[in-house]
Design a protein that fits this description.
single chain; 601 residues; alpha/beta; TIM Barrel; 21 helices; 13 strands
């Protein structure tokens, strides 16, 4: 029997930098897992000071003058979060008069078929002695995980007195060290692709290896977009004696934040491949893993540790949630974007909440504002972009770049700078002004340069505004990164209400025209193909055209897969299947027409 994921079969993924910076403090005591971003140690230090004052405990700042300050800030903040969660969880289980309401909330939010909920209700109904119920609660209730996220690409090199520091002081490396040195028994989510240097660095920390009981104190979650990537990365880490405990499959485009588009591979077929190859994936990794542990003279498990497969990106109804769990044998579903409307859980300021509630499909777009050069799902008219436009109008485009977390560009300087910074944009604009650019392409080049936004600040500022903290350095502008799914949620709700929606006990979507998540993703990918085709030069190379052809063929195969799925699987009702199949035909015709026009051109 496969190990269960936890008390719930959904989790809250990382959102931005500050939106989920303290979410575990608000949900972990109810058995719900969530993820903290480790990008911004400055924000974590401010939040630690905030909670220290709130709890009336001493606060000792960790100055930038302290050696390894970034890792130490992260460790100290995570330890504080863990302590707060454990105290809240203790209160939930204590069955004191004041805590009974929280215990009831814990039980009410569990899935209806939860064995824990059923047993608890049975004990209460049978008037079981309070002491016996208390013992049962202590033995059976679990907290949600306090997981953390590291974007492998955000691994800025750091300097001391003008001298470049060794790679272990790079931002992502220091974040990993901060997590590894913490008291947490949880996972680090590694996203944004494989980093051999960072992955190799994991070998230095004891908690990622099996202890004397064969348990992993710290675990690895890889966010992946397809099976092949999971297999390659899983084997790479297994060769180092590091086990991947979860593969978190994210829709390439139908997600919030940075969108790592596949070459036309769609979520359904990708999950099908994981479903069909789950045992093979585990076995191939375990064989390599055992050999690596033996070489290192470490404890070696006799059977493979658990591997969870989860999915996220665009899920919006309990029906979709249950289908993914049951049909693809998934362990948990990530619900991100809808939680942006749950201020009880997520740090979203009032102005941004208002914009999110009012957002329609046209207000949500795949932008080029990220300095990382990766497409970025964003909300039009967000206050950070409005701030950016003021700078442009005043003839001073670019951000002052107060935090420099994505200062990764070396086009003009030996020491990297950010492409959203005022320094970079001034230099880049000067460069193109000296070039002969005709037929209106100069203005397009200017717009492409100044479009970049300071998201490493904007994605964290909301946490400061919500908690009434100083934003003098950051400014008040907020970047927000919902997925396209935001268009179908329009009101502020509580944690209880959102959980009830996930489990089908209520419905928060009042728009009957919301498409199935697979159909929505397909439409987004076809639009993205059109965008790629439009960006081709007048005389594309054979390689460029072959890429688009491969992309198109993958989409066609995805459409065929969905035709079969919606026609044959008993999970879909007749009316739902009929609507989905009609939409598939429309999108199929749209795909053929858009590509044919480009091919003829």
């Amino acid at each position: 029997m496969r190990e269960t994921y936890g008390m719930h079969n959904f989790h809250i993924p990382v959102m931005g930098i500050g939106f989920t910076i303290d979410t575990p403090v608000k949900v972990a005591q109810f058995g719900i897992s969530s993820v903290i971003s480790l990008v911004d140690d400055i924000l974590m230090e401010k939040m630690r000071e905030f909670y220290s004052k709130k709890l009336d405990i001493p606060f000792h700042a960790i100055s930038e003058k302290v050696e390894d300050f970034r890792a130490k800030r992260i460790t100290t903040y995570l330890n504080m979060v863990d302590e707060m969660v454990q105290q809240k969880f203790h209160d939930v289980k204590s069955m004191m008069a004041d805590g009974q309401k929280e215990l009831d909330k814990y039980m009410e939010m569990l899935p209806d078929l939860s064995s824990i909920k059923e047993k608890f209700n049975e004990l209460v109904h049978n008037n079981t002695l309070k002491a016996d119920i208390q013992q049962w609660l202590n033995e059976n209730l679990l907290t949600g995980n306090i997981d953390v996220n590291i974007m492998t690409k955000v691994d800025r090199v750091n300097y001391l007195e003008g001298n470049k520091l060794p790679s272990e002081y790079n931002d992502a490396h220091a974040a990993l060290r901060g997590f590894a040195n913490s008291n947490l028994n949880s996972s680090v989510v590694l996203s944004a692709g494989m980093s051999p240097s960072l992955y190799s660095y994991i070998e230095n920390f004891e908690d990622f290896y099996p202890n004397t009981e064969g348990k992993l104190i710290k675990r690895i979650i890889l966010k992946v977009s397809d099976y092949r990537s999971a297999l390659i990365q899983g084997k790479f880490l297994a060769k180092k004696g590091i086990w991947v405990s979860e593969f978190r499959v994210e829709s390439g485009l139908n997600c919030g934040g940075h969108a790592f588009a596949t070459d036309g591979y769609l979520l359904g077929p990708i999950l099908e491949e994981f479903k069909n190859n789950r045992t093979a994936l585990t076995d191939s990794m375990f064989e390599i893993y055992v050999q690596a542990l033996k070489t290192k003279n470490r404890n070696c498990p006799e059977v493979p540790p658990s591997i969870f497969i989860t999915a996220q990106g665009g899920i919006g109804t309990s029906e979709e949630h249950n289908f993914l769990l049951e049909y693809y044998n998934l362990d948990s579903i990530g619900w991100g974007t809808p939680f942006l409307l749950v201020p009880e859980v997520i740090n979203v300021d009032e102005k941004t909440l208002e914009l999110l509630c009012e957002a329609k499909e046209d207000d949500l777009h795949l932008s080029d504002i990220s300095p990382l050069g990766i497409p970025f799902n964003s909300l039009k008219k967000n206050t950070k972009d409005a701030e950016k436009q003021v700078w442009i109008s005043n003839g001073r485009p670019g951000s002052p770049c107060p935090k420099k977390y994505v200062a990764l560009n070396q086009e003009f300087t030996e020491r990297p700078i950010c492409s959203a910074s005022r320094q970079f944009q001034r230099l880049k604009l000067e460069q193109i002004s000296d070039q002969k650019i005709i037929n209106g392409s100069y203005q397009k080049a200017v717009e492409k340069i100044v479009e970049k936004s300071c998201i490493c600040v904007g994605l964290g500022t909301s946490a400061l505004l919500v908690n009434n903290l100083e934003t003098k350095i950051e400014g008040p502008g907020v970047s927000v990164c919902p997925g396209p799914n935001m268009a179908y949620f329009s009101k502020i709700v509580s944690l209880q209400e959102m959980t009830d929606h996930i489990y089908g006990r209520t419905n928060l979507i009042d728009n009957p025209d919301r498409p199935n998540l697979f159909i929505k993703e397909l439409g987004i990918y076809i639009d993205y193909l059109k965008r790629l085709a439009a960006e081709l030069p007048e005389n594309p190379t054979d390689k460029q055209y072959a890429f688009l052809e491969k992309y198109r063929k993958n989409l066609i195969e995805g459409i065929e897969y969905y035709r079969y799925l919606f026609s044959t699987d008993k999970f879909f009702s007749g009316s739902e299947s009929e609507v989905a199949l009609k939409e598939l035909e429309k999108l199929s015709a749209q795909l053929a027409l858009s590509f044919q026009i480009k091919a003829e051109a």
